[in-house]
Amino acid sequence: MYSINETHDPNLRSWVESANDPVTDFPIQNLPFCMFREKSDGYVRPRLGFPIGDFVFDYETCREKEVLRHDEDWEIEKALSRFTYDFNLTSAVEGVGAEVFSTLRNHLVQALRMEADERVRGKVEKVLVPISELEFTAPFQIHDYTDFYCSIYHATNVGSMFRPDNPLMPNYKYVPIGYHGRASSIVVSGTDVRRPWGQNRSDAEKPPVFIPCKNLDYEMELGFFVGKGNELGQPIPISEAEEHIFGVCLVNDWSARDIQAWEYQPLGPFLAKNFATTVSPFVVTMEALAPFRTPAFERDPDDPQPLPYLHDQQNQRFGGLDINLEVYIQSEKMREENIEPHLLSRSNTKDLYWTIGQMLTHHASGGCNLQTGDLMATGTVSGKEKTERGCLLELTWRGSEPLTLPSGETRRFLEDGDEVIMKGFCEREGFRRIGFGECRGKILPALN
Ligand code: MN
Q1: Which tens digits make up the pLDDT trace of 165-200?
Q2: What is the predicted pLDDT for the residue at 65?
Q3: Among candidates 282, 290, 257, which has minimal Cα distance to 271?
């Protein structure tokens, strides 16, 4: 696990003035990875960059021009050279030790800090691109995607709608529940999402019908990317789990609740979840998150302790994450009337019953091989309070308590034209606030 070092110093300031704005998501202490290109240049391959304030530091161009050359850092050189044929982080991260990226983070800080060498600064200034001019691609080539169900509040709420007497299944406090999702339909923030068609059996007296989804929903989740993989057959001990996690992003696990209700038994979600999953483009590294680690969820005294393969002292003390998550909605009418997006919920990942380390270790515990770039998501992050419910299913209690938007419209589930905007950030006394950027997607009408 990363410790706090000079790159987290809250007094560090950047010569990029917008990075010193107290509300920016991207101060010098953050430096997430992203793959970007100019909006006007759809055919140009994406390049590696690091957002800083209102800009992206075009690191790849910078290196090609030999602006920043750290000849002593052969490992960084070797890793970054792989971008040229892959256009994403997957092969650059594969097989590269965490210390390499730690060194890189330190180099970035040295180049961007107020006290940077004048000559370096002059050259970096030439490769800063305004974020507003850019579009982003998925940061990794994602081979596999797994979605967990780790918020006990979400699981209890959803369970009580379907099984009022027995909301939590008996396995919940022993097994990090999850399902294998679909990687091919993962899209990056800003991509429109088409309302899916599917089987609906809302009338139990009649056979199902094949119609456009009626109960379309979002799920506010935290995603994490596998850095180092493991060999088939070789589990990952919980004490080493964090060494395999590269960083995190925001995830919207779009869900078709009517399709889900009819198809989910006995094997779990299928088409209700596979039509689209949206990720934010910025990978916030585990090192940047070092100041925001928390103890694992404090279990009720009556709850079982995690089984030994999921139990580790370090993980219990620091395995949690203090990340604030927010969901906003803006309907078509709101856009037309220039009404700002409306806050739907605020929740925090420290309320998750399982840590991301436990999720990863459990995933590999039977010998399943994880690969660099695999995406795992926590499941809907909900808290105890009503205002902390991370999906509409919970917020409107399966549609029975519709929400009212500032435009006067009501919502049970998502309507065509609605845009869902997710945000995330970390704050802690004595440290610089860091943010995750946005994860947004707008609903298009179903095909005819
Ligand atoms: Mn989910």
Answers
A1: 889 999 999 999 999 999 999 999 999 999 999 999
A2: 59
A3: 257
Mean pLDDT per 10-residue segment, the chain (448 residues): 96 98 98 92 83 94 64 62 70 80 91 92 92 95 96 97 90 98 98 98 94 98 96 98 97 98 94 98 98 98 97 98 98 98 98 98 98 97 98 97 98 98 98 98 97
**Structure tokens belonging to residue 392:** 């509409």
- How far from the centroid of its chain's Cα atoms is residue 237's Cα? 24
333 touches 151 (CB < 8 A)? no
Residue 301: predicted pLDDT? 96
Long-range contacts of 73-76 (CB under 8 A, 24+ apart): 73/100, 73/103, 73/104, 73/107, 75/100, 75/103, 76/100, 76/103, 76/104, 76/107
> How many angstroms does the Cα of residue 269 sit away from the middle of ligand 1?
9
Amino acid at 9: D
The one catalytic residue in 8, 143, 154, 342 is 154
Strand runs (DSSP E) across 39-141, as ranges?
47-52, 55-57, 128-130, 134-137
| Catalytic-residue membership of 154 | yes
* C-alpha of residue 363 to centroid of ligand 1, in Å: 16
How far, in Å, from the CA of 381 to the mean position of ligand 1?
A: 9
Distance 294 CA to ligand 1 centre (A): 23
Report CA 90 to chain centroid distance, whole Å: 16
What distance in angstroms lies between residue 76's CA and the mean position of ligand 1's atoms?
Answer: 35
For the chain, what is the radius of gyration of the CA atoms? 22
Please, which residues bridge with residue 250 across strands?
222
Is beta strand 375-377 parallel, antiparallel or unpaired with respect to 284-285?
Answer: unpaired
Whether this model's pTM surpasses 0.85: yes
Q: Give all domains of the chain, ordered by start, each with its CATH number.
A: 6-137 (2.30.30.230), 145-444 (3.90.850.10)
Q: What is the pLDDT of residue 45?
A: 85
CA pair distance 226, 219, nearest whole angstrom: 21
> How much distance in Å is there from the Cα of 395 to the middle of ligand 1?
15
Measuring CA to CA, how many Å separate 108 from each of 11, 52, 321, 346, 414?
16, 10, 24, 32, 41
